[in-house]
Structure formats: structure tokens, C-alpha cells
Target: Single-stranded DNA binding protein
Amino acid sequence: MAMISSFSALRKIPQVQCRKKEKERGGQNNYPYKVIEITPPPKNLGVRCFPSNLQCGESVTIEGRAYTISAVTHRYQLRKGKYEPSEKRLDVLSTGRYIVNLYLENLLQQS
Model:
């Protein structure tokens, strides 16, 4: 059992770095986000670099398509007594779908 615990302590989580070209865009620091399109069925759009100050409702373009951010999630793990960032995730919807959802929610509230 000692070998298993020492092996798990040595296990490294892969780090994703943004390319220098992406960091220089806009003069802001960009961070890697795991991007998920949440329309059923959920679709993984990969890991993309975006500024750290993204908020819900903002528009982003990925591979020529416009998406609207529905949720921004920052996950942390407890390692050696400290919480360290483990994942940043963006849940996105296509812009058309986002507008339809807002319209339908408004109709539901009015009835």
C-alpha cells in the first residue's frame, strides 16, 4: 500500500499553457479554459485560451462560430493542505440558441 500512496503523490497533472501569440492579443493575460457547448447532447469544444475576466452573457468566437457564455466555473483541489486551481470551464451556447432560451424564459414568466 505504501507504493500506491507514494505513486499517487508523484502523479503529475498535465499543465496547459497558452501560446505566446495568444497571450499577446489585447495586452491581457489569457488562461486555458475547457469549453463545453451545453446544448443536448453536450459537445466538448476543446481547451481554448481566453482572458481571465470572462462573464456570463459575453460573446466568444470559436472556429468561426459565435457562442454566448452561460456559465464560468473555477474548480479547486486540496493538495498538501492548500487549495490549488485544477480546472477552468466555460459552458457556452450558440448565440441563436441563447436568444431563443431568453425569449422562452420571458414567455414562461409572463404566463
Remarks:
- Residues 60 and 67 are 5 Å apart (CA to CA).
- The two ends are 61 Å apart (CA to CA).
- Residues 1-13 have pLDDT under 50 and may be disordered.
